[in-house]
Amino acid sequence: MLNYIWFFFFGVAFITAICQSLFCGNAEIWSNLMNTTFESSKKAFEICLGLTGVLTLWLGLMKVGEQAGLITKLSKLINPLFSRIFPEIPKGHSASGSIMMNVSANMLGLDNAATPMGLKAMKELQELNPRKDTASNAMIMFLVLNTSGMTIIPISVMMYRSQYNAANPSDVFIPMLLASTCGTIAGLVLCCLKQRIKLLDRVLGTTLLCLLAFVVGICFLFGSMTQEQISFYSTLFSNILLFSAIMTFLISGLVKKVPIFETFVEGAKEGFSTVVTIIPYQVALFVGISLFRECGALTFITEGIGWLLSNMSLPTEFVPALPCAILKPLNGAGARAMMLDVFETYGVDSFVGHVVSCIQGITDTTMYVLAVYFGSVGVKRFRYAATYGLFADFVGIVAAIIVGYIFFG
């Protein structure tokens, strides 16, 4: 599927450039597109270089936890649930622990910490995969849950809102939690139906009910706090939890008499080889998306949707947030730039400023995650992973717009 998407980006940019140069007399479009290819490929490589340090740290820590038996214990703890939604993973397999840590990091908005754990999980799932070039059901379920991006504490979004002097940087907390939960549940249910997993199973059903109860409880708890309290406790909780995870790895290694430094170095070496593997995928996708944005196709699509909604007498106040919604599943940096542009143009406390904040925090960069995660283990056939992941994104984005009208309209 990535073949067609990548060709689509380049094809649209090429056709748009021809039309602008012939009918609009805009000869500069060609030089702009070429400059974009150079700049975006450089930026993609720099992102990968920045990822090297994070991968080295967390893969080293994961190796310590693996040798100490911590990952195995975590796998056994969550086995009752994961044995239902990941029936292909053997009981007590380390992949379950890696998946759980990745999902937990994503829920806390800790993107840099989540990526190494996700790559580790994909490597372990690939070991169980009988068809090495084709995504297994477990891989697809994992990636859909990963990209649907349920976020409990949206640290990065609140940080950007604070930098733009929002009256209440954390007022998007509850709307974002509700919207991201909708996307995650949609992705989970859709994958369960496709893979013939029983949704009415006692353990799975209880888990979904507990998840909903947890979300309601979080909304109630933070809803009674002031802006300063929400920002303080959410940041504090995330950082304490993350550093506690690091200390747990190290302490477990000492207790089990694992040579933690040597083991860390052994695991950390995998970070370099992993980055080398994902660089081509990152560069290819980043360049294609940058061309798609630079050629003006994104603006054309947004204005077209606005015109259509206007003629149908439907609300159009959220339309300026659509570029962020369109780019978010494709490119995180581009979506972030669109969010900041909305803050500059309309104001961080405007209705569209609130909506774009919710959109920015509810989904992961689906196509990027698919390309990097699958590319890191050599999987070429994604099956329905992209379709279902984008569907979960769509549900989350629609939910973000709806809750935007409910809370800020």
Q: Could you describe the 3D structure shown?
A:
- With 409 residues, the chain is mostly helical.
- It contains 17 helices and no strands.
- Helix 2 packs across helix 10 and helix 2 (28-67) runs antiparallel to helix 11.
- It starts with a helix and ends with a helix.
- 45% of the residues are buried.
- The mean pLDDT is 80.
Helix tally?
Answer: 17
Report Rg.
22 Å
Number of strands: 0
* Quaternary structure annotation: single chain
Order of helices and strands: HHHHHHHHHHHHHHHHH
Low-confidence stretches: none
- The residue-averaged pLDDT reads 80
What is the terminal separation in angstroms?
Answer: 38 Å
The biggest beta sheet is recorded as: none
Indicate the proportion of strand residues.
Answer: under 5%
Envelope shape: globular
Give the proportion of residues in helices. Answer: over 70%
Short key terms for the protein model shown above:
409 residues; mainly alpha; 17 helices; 79% helix
Set out the fold topology.
Layout (H helix, E strand, L loop, with lengths): L1 H22 L4 H40 L2 H16 L8 H14 L3 H18 L8 H12 L6 H9 L9 H22 L7 H22 L3 H29 L4 H35 L2 H15 L10 H6 L4 H15 L4 H12 L3 H12 L7 H24 L1
Helix pairs in contact: 1-2, 1-11, 2-5, 2-10, 2-11, 3-4, 4-5, 5-16, 6-8, 6-16, 6-17, 7-15, 8-9, 8-15, 8-17, 11-16, 14-15, 15-17
